[in-house]
Write a structure and sequence with these properties.
Structural class: mainly alpha
Oligomer: single chain
CATH superfamily of one domain: MetI-like
């Protein structure tokens, strides 16, 4: 008795047909991977908390200024430095601005700058990291010069270099983005280069070369897509660092200027009142800043564990 119909039914059920033209990734495998991701998130409480914080921060970036109880920039000099109350949940600052509304509105500045600068840094650093592997004598020399240039950039303290760049360009959100991009793209270059050096000697890359693919095709069609994993993990940490640097620049007066709601500037404005007992203008923005940075750091750590199963405990 032929078992071909039963085999055919089993193949259709699993989504795999025994054919050379069949897709390399079946529907069943895709479902299994999704279940694996969901199971890993459920089993990793820190990652789940980080993802929740990231989701809330992105929601606030989009809608934060719209859901506050007051306008984040309106001033009321009859209610300056009032403590937390039913009218002002987080109190008011020295200009009578509602701190709760400003804390909710701040991600539109801080997180926007961090996400855009990290995206730009990845767009520059990842391709350069692949080029820096050097597949010819000229490529080796180019890679060597790139690495030495990255050494120069990374030799400076991160915040000092950011401060110098913003001071040179001028204090604005766009210039902060430029400064953060310059600071971060060397990190993505090195992460991608390290991964690409391991990938370019793999069998499928050699097969592409034997098949007649040019150097550019091999590097950008085969090596690059398989080398972005470390950069994706590093992106979450880079966003957290960018948020901290943005807040630090605003804290020292070199970043976003009031009355624009920004966590670092709010902490700086409220710090002078701590000595007289008005703690709320700086404590609440500081807590929000710390929680968001922690969330992105937890996501980065969780992604690192997921992509490297040998490190899972």
């Amino acid at each position: 008795m032929s078992i071909e119909p039963e085999t055919r039914a089993l193949e259709e059920e699993t989504g795999h047909l025994d054919s050379a033209a069949g897709p390399p990734l079946t529907a069943a495998v895709q479902r299994g991977e999704l279940n694996g991701v969901g199971g890993f998130v459920r089993s990793n409480r820190a990652l789940a908390i980080g993802l929740a914080i990231v989701a809330i921060s992105i929601f606030l970036m989009a809608f934060g200024p719209l859901i506050g109880t007051h306008s984040p920039t309106s001033e009321d000099f009859t209610a300056t430095l009032t403590g937390p109350s039913g009218e002002h949940w987080f109190g008011t600052d020295q200009n009578g601005r509602d701190i709760f509304s400003r804390v909710l509105a701040a991600p539109r500045v801080d997180l926007y700058i961090a996400l855009v600068s990290t995206a730009f840094a990845m767009a520059i650093g990842v391709p350069l990291g692949v080029l820096a592997t050097g597949t010819s004598r000229l490529g080796e020399l180019t890679g060597e010069w790139l690495l030495r240039a990255m050494d120069v950039i990374q030799a400076f303290p991160v915040f000092i270099l950011a401060l110098a760049l913003v001071a040179g360009f001028g204090a604005s959100a766009f210039n902060v983005i430029i400064a953060l991009t310059v600071l971060q793209f060397p990190v993505f270059l090195r992460l991608t280069r390290g991964a690409a050096l391991g990938i370019r000697g793999r069998t499928f890359v050699e097969a592409a070369r034997i098949g007649g693919a040019g150097t550019g095709g091999v590097m950008f069609r085969h090596v690059l897509p398989n080398s972005v994993g470390p950069a994706l993990v590093g992106a979450s940490v880079a966003v957290a660092q960018a948020i901290l640097i943005t807040a630090g620049l605003s804290f020292v007066g070199a970043g976003i200027r009031p009355p624009t709601p920004e966590w670092g500037a709010m902490i700086s404005d409220g710090a002078q009142n701590l000595i007289t007992g008005q703690w709320w203008p700086s404590v609440f923005p500081g807590l929000a800043l710390g929680i968001v940075v922690l969330g992105y750091a937890l996501v980065g750590d969780g992604l690192r564990l997921y992509l490297d199963p040998s490190r899972r405990r």
